[in-house]
Amino acid sequence: MMKEKDQSISILGCGWLGLPLAVHLIGQGYPVKGSTTSPNKLPLLSKQGINSYLISLNPKINEDYQQEFFNSHTLILNIPPSRRQPDVEQFYPAQIQEVLKAAGNTALKNIIFVSSTSVYPSLNREVKEEDAGGELSASGKALLKVEQMLLDQQRFQVSILRFCGLYDKERNPGRFLAGRKLDSSGKDVVNLIHLDDCIGIISMLLKKPAWGEIYNACSDVHPEKESFYALATQNLGLEAPEFSDSAESSYKSVDSTKLKQYLEYRFLHPDPLRSLKES
Questions:
Q1: What is the pLDDT of residues 218-251, one digit of tens each?
Q2: Does residue 17 form part of some domain?
Q3: Which of 2, 87, 94, 127 could make an SS bond with 131 (beta carbons 3.0 to 4.6 A apart)?
Q4: CATH number for 91
């Protein structure tokens, strides 16, 4: 797993995942450029050793953006579709088209696209990479459209990582459902991945690239919603959600076998429920 001679990385979107990823990669010896949509955040990125750039996509890229941001060996494309955007199925692909256009006349060679397992419908079974499509949310449809756009273009080599629900000690999923009465079954399973594993997987993919491939990235163990959210809310001192005893199953269980086999990756946090107990 050798690093290529030009190791420079650009991370489009230095938020909850992008910022600690950038710090980790700098620690690994990579020169890193990072983008933010907020001018106030530029000094924070610079303080961490990140070459910081202001880039916004509405869906057009800001006129004063610096093309030098895209002049790296690999771009980690880490901007999710906005669920609040009413026309997200058109808006999100237009944003990514702007990225491809801006990067077109640079030295950029590769793109790692951070996608999501929202491209899978609830099939009440295990889902693999080929099961994407069907009845999806608007943001799920937008992601699938962008994935195909990236794989179809000829300018850059692309790998796609489909992350499931993201969590860590500070981002406890319990706060999203605390105290709610839900129509879903508490016996359905959850699909989660810890921030440490997101960073670990991207780091491994940079060392052992597999262009043109799609990988699911989800913890090995899939706890039931009822037990997981009971503990998650308890850890926050909040009221547990109530699930419906009469609701029919509506779930998917995301399988990451392909990723683990190719990268020989072992999850640092294979069981989200255990991680909660230890936090």
A1: 999 999 999 999 999 999 999 999 999 999 999 9
A2: yes
A3: 127
A4: 3.40.50.720
Q: Please state the domain count of the chain.
A: 1
Q: How far, in Å, CA of 226 to CA of 214, rounded?
A: 31
Q: Look at the pTM and tell me if it is higher than 0.85.
A: yes
What one-character DSSP code corresponds to residue 62?
A: P
Q: Is residue 106 a contact partner of residue 70, using CB atoms and an 8 Å limit?
A: yes
Residue type, 263: L
Structure tokens, 214: 């799609």
Catalogue the E-assigned strands of 81-191: 110-116, 126-127, 157-163, 165-167
DSSP H helices in 104-194: 138-152, 174-177
Q: In this structure, is residue 77 part of a structural domain? A: yes
Q: Evaluate whether residue 115 is within a structural domain.
A: yes
- Containing structural domain, residue 67: 9-171+192-219+253-268
Judge if the upstream peptide bond of residue 86 is cis by omega within 30 degrees of 0.
Answer: no
Lookup: tokens for 273: 């429920």
